[in-house]
Amino acid sequence: MQNSTLKPARKERLADTVYGQILDEITAGRFTSGDKLPSEAELSHSFAVSRPVVREALLRLTTDGLIQSRRGIGTFVSTRPSSRLTELAKTSELSSYLRSFEPRIVLEVEAARLAAQRRTRADLDRAHAAIEALRVAIASGQRGQEQDIEFHDAVARAAGNEYFCDLLNDLRQPVTETMNIGLELARERSPGRRLRIIEEHTRILDAIAAEDSDAAASYMKYHLMQARAAVLDARHLENSQALDIAPRARG
Amino acid sequence: MQNSTLKPARKERLADTVYGQILDEITAGRFTSGDKLPSEAELSHSFAVSRPVVREALLRLTTDGLIQSRRGIGTFVSTRPSSRLTELAKTSELSSYLRSFEPRIVLEVEAARLAAQRRTRADLDRAHAAIEALRVAIASGQRGQEQDIEFHDAVARAAGNEYFCDLLNDLRQPVTETMNIGLELARERSPGRRLRIIEEHTRILDAIAAEDSDAAASYMKYHLMQARAAVLDARHLENSQALDIAPRARG
Amino acid sequence: MQNSTLKPARKERLADTVYGQILDEITAGRFTSGDKLPSEAELSHSFAVSRPVVREALLRLTTDGLIQSRRGIGTFVSTRPSSRLTELAKTSELSSYLRSFEPRIVLEVEAARLAAQRRTRADLDRAHAAIEALRVAIASGQRGQEQDIEFHDAVARAAGNEYFCDLLNDLRQPVTETMNIGLELARERSPGRRLRIIEEHTRILDAIAAEDSDAAASYMKYHLMQARAAVLDARHLENSQALDIAPRARG
Amino acid sequence: MQNSTLKPARKERLADTVYGQILDEITAGRFTSGDKLPSEAELSHSFAVSRPVVREALLRLTTDGLIQSRRGIGTFVSTRPSSRLTELAKTSELSSYLRSFEPRIVLEVEAARLAAQRRTRADLDRAHAAIEALRVAIASGQRGQEQDIEFHDAVARAAGNEYFCDLLNDLRQPVTETMNIGLELARERSPGRRLRIIEEHTRILDAIAAEDSDAAASYMKYHLMQARAAVLDARHLENSQALDIAPRARG
């Protein structure tokens, strides 16, 4: 495989652009939650791209929880992300950044599983120090992305297989971008989400320390799924009505 | 289920008893967090059982996060469960109840995965009604275990395969016992844990509604791992120091 | 959950019947490989059942690899099972039998994973004896289903958790039915498939003996997927053109 | 990938060397199947390395199925790989090559799962052409590693996420090395193993074509586990006594 494969195919890049354009409409409130989106044919016409490109963009928006299709009825907006999102990232690049979670999740989950079997005392100390530094950073109002990355590096290193470190290093750029967005949105919001970030990391480390592979893998998976959801605020319930103790009506 | 197979072998039952005896010592504070346990030989002598029985009991206490062994040094108590635990259940039966989580987790995780692919509108409504009823029950100071069971039944039914319902039905007794303990301990504590219970159920249902199999499976797994941990309060961080925003020293 | 839940709902039972009727047509050669099936509306009319029932039956036939739908074109027969199948089982019950693989696979895969961690010498001996007995049975022209069941019981027992044995016992009837069909079809065919059955069991046991949880789980999963496929001879490549060393055209 | 992270730590490299030295002894027949290995202390003395380095090397030999430890008794040789192995690769590098399977398996298994959901007609055609080319290559006595790589690339591409292609590209060197060894050993042996290689690839592709994510993932995992085992001929039963239909004694 040559360098050429490092770039996504043209269709994929066009779909990223269309994804960004629809996301802009949603973020700006021109398509709002519950709204029916225009048909594939209409979107293909408006954005001047082929229907397979539109279909690909819609598929990704669905995967990311921003829209939902109901068979035979149409496609609807399900979430409106923070308006800050468009300031924190180019919407045309978000789709690509989010796609990096697919390989990242399987790599980090496996690294956590192996770390629970192979970690040394030094590995645990390093990961623990990273969490403490993250706690301090967050408490003092910083994003803490360096400390967050340091924790994930410590886990990868504890897996005792240098390939995990190398491969995650190759994903460094999209990982850093999504981490910045997620941590920044958390920083600006309720202390609840910030506490959760510390808690999720601690739980992973505790499972690794207890040599519980299955728990380490599950908690890492949960953490990364939350991290992905946090970027778009989609299907991310921490401050949703789910937390009201009072009964609520379902939309 | 034939009766003959319902009883664990003699060694297993003895190990359950020894498990309960050690747990009693921990809960009563005679062995406390950080304490080194007596050796296998000493425990075998005190409890008048063979060493394989002691080893089996220690293995389960380790799996349940109550003790931790450090190679070449010894075995240490890692958590002290609520003293209420011994009032809520016979400690000699707790090991068996907790063991039911092993098959329960794989069955319910698969049911959630399939439910995301096959659920009907009626399935979603039933599960949603169960969560709302659980919210009301918890808000009015009840345990809510009927509503909790109703939710899990609704997910199993949404899997579109009657075997899941039948098999979970066969696990009804230990599931009810552990649910009672976990919900009762949550009821007596901070509202935080109670809110989490609602949130965890909502997240599973949202993933099923969104037809996201992988998320539904992961969130169900996370929920059941938390439920298991809640019974013993072990490795259960919700109200641990992990949530202090201030730096802490690690033991 | 009451006894009533032990029976599938009426829609499910009707779907099983329609599944059996379509399967009869395929087995009898009235619908053959590559043929387009009548539309949902036509099938609903012919079998005098509602369209959701037809849809459910088609969904299961697809899951079982007997038919395949191509978006916007129609549904096509993909495999013709052995004509012996209709002699070995009532086609109206096959769908239910096959459905038992869904919980069975997750339970036995988890049992194999735990067995690799907890098996005693006696467990290994019992499982090994079962494989040797299966080898003898097959070599002397018998089906060997008792020996096959004995092996799977031995693995469940080695998991050190009596609930696995109990739950698999509850699945005994559909497991025995599908095992009989699969082993009988293997018995009547090339020695290749019979050798594979021995090999698949041996591989699982070797992984359990080597305390390799991940391999034990993967090999059990592979074995049960092959067992399910063997019942219908669908997507079951052992004697397909895939084994011709010469290039072939794809249909 | 930054160069600094490409190199394993010093301890890891030393462990690779010791792994290679012990493997040399086994391949040359100086330690044979069933033999007890010298103790950690003795090995540490013979190879003039620290005991943690010896322990790490033994751990990897165990993971790779070459040796087996029995608690309290000692460590035993379990398999003697082909003597051709030492001609095909430097034994000091084998450990590192084999380690690449850990991230490779999770990446390719996830790629296969996603490919079953997203593959286009062109993806299927490309993967099918690769299998046909592999069949021709093998039939004419070649190794076929280019065609084998082409198949795996086609699956990664079908996952519709360019990161999978990029990351697997980063693993290209160890993947090519292990593939060469496995295919060369298969080429020199019975046609059975060569047929299996074609069959395993076909089964993956059939599951992807049938949009069966779970089967695609399982078959890919099985295939890669077989591929890893094939390098060392360890726990690789294809031509073992397991295939004799006659009863055998267990060692």
Automatic annotation (TrEMBL), chains A, B, C, D:
It comes from Oryzicola mucosus. It holds the Pfam family GntR. This is FadR family transcriptional regulator. Gene3D superfamilies: GntR ligand-binding domain-like (1.20.120.530), Winged helix-like DNA-binding domain superfamily/Winged helix DNA-binding domain (1.10.10.10). Keywords: DNA-binding, Transcription, Transcription regulation. InterPro entries: GntR_C (IPR011711), TF_FadR/GntR_C (IPR008920), Tscrpt_reg_HTH_GntR (IPR000524), WH-like_DNA-bd_sf (IPR036388), WH_DNA-bd_sf (IPR036390). GO terms for molecular function: DNA binding; DNA-binding transcription factor activity. Residues 12-80 form the HTH gntR-type domain. It comes from the Bacteria.
